[in-house]
Write a structure and sequence with these properties.
Elements: H1 2-15, E1 20-25, E2 30-33, H2 35-41, H3 45-48, H4 59-63, H5 66-77, E3 79-87, E4 93-104, E5 110-119, H6 121-140, E6 145-149, E7 155-158, H7 160-166, H8 170-173, H9 184-188, H10 191-202, E8 204-212, E9 218-229, E10 235-244, H11 246-264, H12 269-281, E11 286-291, E12 297-300, H13 302-308, H14 312-315, H15 320-323, H16 326-342, E13 346-354, E14 357-368, E15 377-384, H17 386-400, H18 410-427, E16 430-439, H19 441-448, H20 450-467, E17 473-478, E18 481-489, H21 493-506, E19 510-512, E20 515-517, E21 520-528, H22 535-551, E22 557-559, H23 562-583, E23 587-596, E24 602-613, E25 617-619, H24 625-631, H25 634-649, E26 657-661, H26 672-683, E27 690-694, H27 697-700, H28 703-715, E28 719-725, H29 731-737, E29 742-745, H30 747-752, H31 757-773, E30 776-780, H32 785-793, E31 798-800, E32 808-809, H33 810-816
Parallel strand pairs: 21-22, 24-26, 26-27, 27-28, 28-29, 29-30, 30-31
Antiparallel strand pairs: 1-2, 1-5, 3-4, 4-5, 6-7, 6-10, 8-9, 9-10, 11-12, 11-15, 13-14, 14-15, 16-18, 16-21, 17-18, 19-20, 23-24, 23-31, 23-32, 24-25
């Protein structure tokens, strides 16, 4: 049971590649780590195990003993958490979030620590960009004082409008509690904290009241405090928005006073009217005054004329119905009726057609009570808040959308997925998640630059949207990865139809900045058709299906199956064991002879890797090389094979060469040529005695870049062989792309040549072409004398296969020599 638990634990830890997980002893030395840690730091396990974890810190942080301080906090409190710069083997820095937990045995004795690190560099960059945009946006709003408060109400940031409204300098207020803007009696009564508690519990606090500037002067303010939470519901702080409404309030008070004076002093009515007109004309809001009893309009100011399209000289004695279009009349009529029914101020917002176009109006209505009952009025004030609401909308959009494509980001995608799962479960429908990855996008980005790549991503997103339904959600995860929620499905096959249309949508080339670009898309599909699955599980299933689609040739879609989950677990186990095999020197090279058919002499050997597993015995390359390619371990394996093969071959007769296979993945390593050069230099092997074998897929993937790498290898003096020749669609075209020294006829043709005329014809064509191009040929997979004789008749000169010898370790070769 303990062994099963340990295997499960190892599987869990090693499968988490997005987190770097380190097991530390009680002194902070690394005793184990996972694949995510190796990927994040660029070190091999042998370079890190036994080293203090401060290896990843800067010299300045090491000198300050930051790592020891973090261990001390974790030991005293059980847990330590921090963010900062960490450093990879190559010296590059990445922003990391790190947590350290102390681990004790059952007796309470300290065993060591577990350190979990995640690379937040991209998130920090995006956050900085978003913060910058937010700051620029907020700083541009000068009519409003905007404050960012921490959970205790301390000011952490504010905009130019706040500095202008309050008269403080930034260093005088940043870090101070926002209660400084309240009066002393309000502070003593705990009003600021009560307001904050309302925002904390209800999400928002809103009020109109007096606030105070640095010089002690007061202003009448409309205040809104909104609580801000993260994705998990934790309170991050508050946004407080204040608008100076002193002028508006004074204008309202002056209107009341003026009306009262006009009623008390009829002989001064004309003068008061002019005074009233002067006040109202200077109010930046649209003002309408309506008689409660008659419903007649008594006053319309200049802003009401400009904004609402009303006419002051036509308004006298008329009613709202006579002056406004239907939509506007319905809005203001309801506002007037509501305030007359309750006697309290009413406010509302609505988008409506105005004299300046469609605008969002924020309107309030209140009762003005005169000396006599018949002098009651309704005062309606309207402000155009379109720009402010647009700014609010931009801020909300930025928090939930990808900046490049304006598609939903992962936060909004997960929210939509949760909602779809809930709705479809209630309605008895199916929900599907699609994971998409563009094929060939990296080549475009590397060759033509990020601007062209960004334009291509926007164009691809547009085509994806064109084939989706209105209820579907397309999101960009980052890079060239997208996700789609397909709700309201009747059958799982409905997702297949949409996936097929998505693949077809991107097949036609894209015209971007004068380039005709071609990309494909691989799609993984996960359908929630049985028991409700958590969002994270459904996304993981879609990722597994996407991996399978890419493994099976790309430009296709695959459905998730339980077999994929099992295969992923097996791959994870192989990867774990393979990492251990590298550090424990379980990998060895075997050598199979290449024979000259005329002389019968061995002219060289092909190096073939074998894994001597302590429990499973010898494991063949087909069972571990694909995993090594997927995880990047192929770079370590390939470098080992090159160095070991060159070192062994240096001790052979000078007329014998050694052939080493290069994986297409190795060509993604910019240092491949340097690794080959170093292997030759260390072993003192003559470059012409090293032959590297590639498959046609090297030329399919990033063609021009890989051909340049091949030419650099050839410039070293290394011979280049094209393996498995004849199995690809464009084999002949590759011979025009690059001057190969040798081609190897794939053994599938040799196996079938005695029964298949087509295979024999292909072999005959290859040998004839090689003679005309002066390229050597090796026939591989020769297993009997009949095959050997027939291949000689067809013009083959070099042979490899069990008929001439099986692969053997170097010590057995030496005995034979």
């Amino acid at each position: 049971m303990r062994e099963t638990s340990d295997v499960t634990y190892r599987l869990l830890v090693q499968s988490i590649v997005n987190y770097a997980i380190y097991m530390l002893d009680s002194d902070g030395r690394v005793v184990n780590w996972n694949a995510g840690a190796q990927r994040a730091t660029g070190y091999q396990a042998s370079e890190v195990i036994g080293q203090h974890f401060s290896l990843f810190y800067s010299e300045q942080d090491r000198a300050a003993k930051l790592a020891d301080d973090q261990l001390r906090v974790a030991l005293n409190k059980g847990h330590a958490e921090d963010e900062g710069w960490l450093y990879r083997k190559d010296g590059s820095a990445y922003w990391a979030h790190a947590s350290i937990d102390a681990v004790h045995d059952d007796g309470g004795k300290l065993i060591g620590f577990v350190k979990i690190t995640r690379d937040y560099t991209e998130q920090q960059r995006l956050q900085r960009e978003q913060d910058l945009r937010f700051r620029l946006l907020v700083e541009g709003v000068t009519d409003y004082a905007i404050y960012m408060l921490d959970p205790q109400g301390n000011v952490v940031n504010w905009n130019a409008g706040a500095r202008r409204a309050k008269g403080y300098l930034s260093d005088e207020i940043i870090g101070k509690n926002f209660s400084v803007f309240y009066s002393k009696p309000d502070q003593l009564a705990g009003v600021p904290e009560k307001n904050l508690n309302i925002a904390r519990t209800e999400g928002r606090f809103e009020d109109n009241n007096w606030r105070y500037r640095k010089d002690g002067s007061a202003f009448w303010a409309h205040v809104v405090i909104d609580a801000v939470h993260d994705d998990e519901g934790r309170l991050l702080g508050f946004v407080k928005i204040t608008r100076d409404c002193t002028e508006m309030r004074e204008a309202q008070q002056q209107i009341l006073q003026a009306k009262a004076l006009a009623e008390q002093n009829s002989e001064k009515a004309a003068a008061m009217s002019k005074f009233l007109d002067s006040i109202i004309s200077n109010i930046p809001s649209a003002v309408i005054v309506e008689d409660v009893v008659s419903g007649e309009i008594l006053l319309v100011n200049g802003q009401a004329e400009r904004l609402l399209g009303l006419s002051a000289w036509l308004a006298d004695g008329r009613k709202l119905r006579d002056l406004m279009a239907d939509e506007m009349f319905a809005f203001f009529s309801e506002l007037s009726s509501a305030v007359q029914r309750s006697g309290e101020t009413h406010a509302n917002e609505q988008l409506m057609a105005t004299a300046t176009g469609d605008r969002i109006l924020s309107c309030s209505a209140s009762i003005i009570v005169g000396n006599e009952a018949h002098t009651n009025y309704v005062l309606m004030i309207a402000d155009d808040v379109t720009e402010q609401r647009a700014a609010d909308a931009r801020i909300r959009h930025m928090a939930h959308h990808d900046n490049l494509t304006s598609l939903p980001n992962r936060i909004l995608f997960n929210q939509r997925l949760k909602e779809a799962l809930h709705r479809d479960r209630e309605a008895g429908k199916l929900t599907a998640v699609l994971g998409l990855d563009l094929d060939n996008f990296k080549n475009v980005n590397d060759a033509l630059g990020h601007q062209v790549g960004d334009d291509l991503l926007r164009a691809v997103a547009g085509r994806f949207r064109s084939v989706l339904r209105p209820q579907d959600t397309l999101a960009r995860n980052g890079g060239d990865e997208f996700s789609i929620v397909l709700p309201d499905l009747n059958h799982g096959s409905d997702a297949d139809d949409i996936a097929s249309r998505l693949i077809d949508a991107v097949r036609p080339s894209f015209s971007v900045d004068g380039h005709n670009l071609t990309v494909g898309v691989s799609i993984g599909i996960a359908v929630n058709s049985g028991e409700p699955l958590p969002v994270e599980t459904l996304l993981r299933h879609a990722d597994m299906a996407l991996y399978e689609a890419k493994r099976n040739g790309r430009d296709r879609y695959e459905h998730f199956s339980l077999q994929m989950d099992e295969a992923a677990r097996k791959r994870c186990l192989v990867e774990m064991d393979l990492r251990e095999a590298i550090t424990q020197h379980q990998l060895r090279l075997y050598y199979q002879p290449i024979t000259d058919g005329h002389q019968g002499d061995i002219v060289g050997y092909e190096a073939l890797m074998r894994w001597h597993h302590p429990l499973k015995g010898i494991i063949m390359p087909l069972d571990f090389i694909p995993v090594a390619e997927e995880t990047g371990l192929i770079h370590s394996l390939g470098a080992y094979a090159l160095h070991e093969a060159c070192k062994e071959a240096a001790g052979w007769p000078h007329d014998q060469s050694v052939a080493v296979n290069l994986s297409p993945v190795q060509f993604k390593n910019n240092g491949l040529v340097s690794i080959v050069a170093a292997a030759l230099k260390e072993s003192q092997l003559a470059p012409h005695r090293l032959e590297v074998e590639i498959t046609e897929s090297v030329l399919l993937d990033n063609n021009m870049t890989n051909i340049r790498t091949l030419q650099q290898l050839k410039n070293l003096g290394v011979r280049i062989a094209l393996d498995d020749f004849g199995t690809g669609y464009s084999s002949l075209s590759y011979l025009r792309s690059f001057p190969f020294d040798k081609i190897k006829i794939d053994k599938s043709f040799i196996n079938d040549m005695q029964t298949s005329r087509e295979s024999l014809a292909i072999i005959r064509a290859i040998t004839g072409m090689s003679r005309s191009l002066d390229i050597e040929i090796t026939a591989e997979g020769v297993e009997n004398a009949e095959q050997f004789q027939r291949l000689q008749e067809e013009g083959c000169t070099l042979f490899q296969g069990y008929y001439f010898g099986r692969p053997e370790p170097s010590e057995l070769l030496l005995k034979k020599k």
